[in-house]
Design a protein that fits this description.
Layout lengths: L4 H9 L13 E3 L7 E2 L6 E10 L10 H18 L3 E11 L5 H17 L3 E9 L3 E10 L15 E5 L4 H9 L11 H12 L5 H7 L5 E5 L3 H11 L3 E5 L7 H7 L1 H10 L5 E6 L7 H8 L3 E8 L4 E5 L2 E3 L16
Parallel strand pairs: 4-5, 9-12
Antiparallel strand pairs: 1-2, 3-6, 4-6, 7-10, 7-11, 8-10, 9-11, 12-13
Helix pairs in contact: 2-3, 2-6, 4-5, 5-8, 6-10, 8-9
The structure holds adenosine-5'-diphosphate and magnesium ion.
């Protein structure tokens, strides 16, 4: 049986509410009343996002609670990163099975709390109920007026870029699920790197900030690179041309899955929480400086086009791509 609802909130979540050492004087009233009282900075725009993770759908049943806590916040911080926002506050809707124990809660709170502390985020409230394990997090952050990165402002001719090595997380998930086609391939360190990318994705907040005033459009990669790049292109009223050979594949991806499967993971795998963004070709020389500031690789993988078609070229020849990504209400992934 889980501990009582109030004891649970007091013990594991109240310490994360920004007042006790988390250093957020803008939390006027945190956890404990009917609602939190927060002081947004004068003149800034508020940026709000919410994402839900359901056991068995967004992470395998029996996943490490530390990873669940980390991911529940990370996927939301990634949405703020993609807007070029600075995160400030979070609320947690927690649905727990009756079998939840203190050890699980401790590890969950540590996973969430460690990431929150690293980015100066206070957990200012939430709700706790019983039922199938489900985590719903709302994050709030700020952006100077007019400075948000949006997905709808790309221009034909803009270069399409991506951070990190998308596809690592999808291969890591397959390893966690003991996918037989990957059995024994790659070194132990490579396998560990991929699993870690799924279990502890790093939201690209520093990159989002660095891209303010530089990127023409931005989206985070949650459903798969091809699908999310296509969403950006569509929102911007453009088509898209991507080049398979340009995809940034890590040694770990190639070692564990081979180059061909690594490419498919890079195009179609989800859960990376990298940023896909566009910028005018004249700004390409700035990419090296941006990468250094953000602490991650940045790679040009294609461009936006005036022609509305979505094209993936492999050695100059068009091929199919998973443009649709994952749809919870579709029967299955489509090509
Ligand atoms: P109420 O019944 O007034 O809605 P609750 O009992 O739901 O109050 O919550 C009490 C306090 O604990 C509130 O401040 C609420 O925001 C906070 N809280 C509840 N669940 C969580 C949670 N999972 N994480 C963070 N804060 C929570
Ligand atoms: Mg309530």
């Amino acid at each position: 049986m889980p501990p009582g609802e109030f004891a649970l909130i007091d013990r594991w979540f109240r310490p994360l509410d920004g007042r006790a050492g988390q250093g957020r004087p803008d939390v006027l009233l945190g956890i404990g009343d009917d609602a939190a009282l927060l002081q947004p900075p004068a003149g800034q725009w508020l940026v709000a996002a919410l994402d839900t993770l359901v056991e068995g759908r967004h992470f395998p049943p029996g996943s490490e609670p530390r990873s669940i806590g980390h991911r529940a916040l990370a996927v939301n911080l990634s949405d703020l990163a993609a807007m070029g926002a600075t995160p400030a506050w979070a609320l947690l809707g927690l649905t727990l099975p009756s079998t939840t124990d203190e050890a699980w809660l401790q590890a969950f709170a540590e996973g969430l709390g460690t990431l929150a502390a690293r980015h100066g985020v206070a957990l200012v409230g939430g709700d706790t109920t019983g039922g199938p394990l489900t985590l719903s997090v709302q994050v709030l952050g700020f952006v100077p007026p007019g400075m948000a990165l949006r997905r709808d402002a790309g221009q034909p001719g803009d270069l399409v870029c991506v951070s990190g090595q998308p596809g690592e997380a999808a291969l890591g998930l397959r390893l966690l699920q003991h996918d037989a086609t990957l059995s024994g391939a790659g070194t132990a360190a490579q396998r560990q790197q991929l699993r870690r990318r799924f279990e502890h994705p790093e939201p690209r907040l520093a990159l989002g900030l660095a891209l303010r005033g530089v990127a023409s459009a931005c989206i985070d990669v949650s459903d798969g690179l091809a699908a999310d790049a296509a969403k950006l292109a569509r929102a911007s009223g453009c088509g898209l041309e991507l080049h398979t050979e340009a995809l940034p594949l890590s040694a770990a991806m190639c070692g564990v899955a081979g180059v061909a499967a690594a490419r498919e993971a890079a195009l179609g795998g989800g859960d990376d929480y990298e940023l896909c963004f566009t910028l005018p070709p004249s700004r390409e020389p700035e990419l090296a400086t941006l990468a250094a500031r953000a602490g991650c690789a940045l790679t040009v993988i294609g461009q936006l086009t005036a022609d509305p078609a979505l094209r993936l070229l492999e050695q100059g020849k068009p091929r199919s791509a998973p443009w649709q990504g994952f749809d919870h209400f579709a029967a299955e992934r489509s090509e």
